[in-house]
Design brief:
Elements (H helix, E strand, L loop, with lengths): L7 H8 L2 H11 L7 H8 L3 H19 L4 H28 L1
């Protein structure tokens, strides 16, 4: 690796817009994954628009990943999954304690 690894959350914020980042995480990383309809309701948009934004987010990540070495990208993806899962567990614990 030529440089320090990019922090996954920073990468998402830098690469995607805020709404795209949330949609990407909810559709592709969180478990259980959110449906198009669930996300559409949250953002007050159509499920088709959610699908479009999700696809656009994937395209942006793929484009940006081409600029980095494979090892850096693998690190990024693993760290992103770990961080999102940790955030999800904290959210679930918080919801249970309410």
């Amino acid at each position: 690796m030529n440089q320090d690894p990019i922090h996954p959350i920073d990468y998402l914020e830098d690469t995607l817009g805020g709404r795209e980042a949330v949609i990407f995480v909810q559709r592709h990383i969180l478990y259980p994954r959110r449906t198009l309809k669930q996300i559409a309701t949250k953002f007050n948009i159509s499920p088709e628009r959610v699908r479009q934004l999700s696809n656009r987010a994937i395209q942006k990540i793929v484009r940006a990943s081409r600029l980095q070495e494979s090892e850096d990208m693998l690190y990024f993806l693993l760290e992103l999954i770990r961080e999102v899962q940790m955030i999800q567990k904290i959210s679930e614990r918080s919801a249970q304690s309410d």
